[in-house]
Amino acid sequence: MRRLGWLIPQLLTAVYAERFPRRKPLVVASMLVQRVAWLLMGMLAVVVEAPVAVWLFLPLYAIGCLAEGVSSAPWSDMLGRSVPAERRGRLLGLMTAAGGMLAFGAGLVVRKVLLVSSGSPAGFGLLFLVGTALSLPSVWAVWLIREPLAPNCRPEEPLGTTLLRVPELLRRPEVRNILWVRALASTIHLSLPFYAVYATRGLGFGPQEAGLFVSVQMAGSTLGSLFWGWLAGRRESRVLVTAVCATAAALPFTAVLFGRLWTWTAVDAFRWGYLAVFFLLGMVMAGMWMGFLHYVLDIAPADRQPTYVGLLNTLVAPLTLLSVVGGWFLRYGYALLFLVNAVFLLWAVARCRHLTAGRRPRPVAEPAGDTAQDG
User: Fold this and answer.
1) Which one is the CATH code of 2-145+160-354: 3.30.930.10, 3.50.50.60, 1.20.1250.20, 2.160.10.10?
2) According to the model, what pLDDT value does residue 224 have?
3) Helix (H/G/I), strand (E/B), else coil: 181
4) I need a labelling partner for 112 at 20 to 30 A (CA). Which of 62, 87, 300, 304 fits?
5) What's the distance, CA 364 to chain centroid?
6) pTM for this one?
7) Has residue 98 got a pLDDT over 80?
8) Amino acid 366: pLDDT
């Protein structure tokens, strides 16, 4: 629900946001709606009986997810106009790495609270309330951003008229090519939920070791974000997207390799080597977010950044449901599922050669100039 709620409203929100010279009010308003939804969920868990709380919890959770999606495209546009392109990749890498480290620490706190509360609704409610309180400074931080005025605001027109222009946008080679790559890369959802399932059912890991998988994945996300940020600061965004897709393609091969080696040899080191899958998974999920965002902000016209970001994210939203198809493939074995997924991910790598180069990072001291080139 959260993933779909984040992706689906982005195109409509982007079209609406382009009517205004500043996107910050819309971003802050949607962030506040999300925090209010979290606050109410926490209060429900503490004071309302379980059956009623569940029915009230789900719509509030949906509202929170949609509010996050509403803020995404305008926030991305603010980032693109407020942060110089040569610093953007490093900033995204540091943001994602810091978020990974904080999430790791938060996971330890969550585990402790739930142990003390014996998993009671009050324990979950306390976590929602504390999380809401800790997230409020981020709203203030966004409000403090000095957002430049957006160029060439879109005149008000019926939403249907605006959406009819989407096919024209898709005919542009740079948009069509990145959409192909993003769609093929999103096929990672085909096998995404089944790496942990294979570890427990096929490799002998116990359910109690699920926390270890999460920890390794968070380590991959944190260290991977630092690497992706370093790469983005030295090469054009096309190279970053290609590297992320290549890492994603290595993921199913790594799962099959260590799984087969342990099956054939029973050497325990190969079973533990399977943890590399979760490390790579953390790298890939962090890299996909920052890599595609960085690239799209590079190629989008300054006055159409929200539409480019929203279009890309909304059109690939249905692909997050591919895990249902992956579940059907499981009747033929995990190895076949992973290898089929690898074919699509390798296709994404191959399609990267059609991407335009984007901006090549420059030292900050150099004067700004347009270094975009055709690729």
Assistant:
1) 1.20.1250.20
2) 92
3) helix
4) 62
5) 28
6) 0.80
7) yes
8) 40
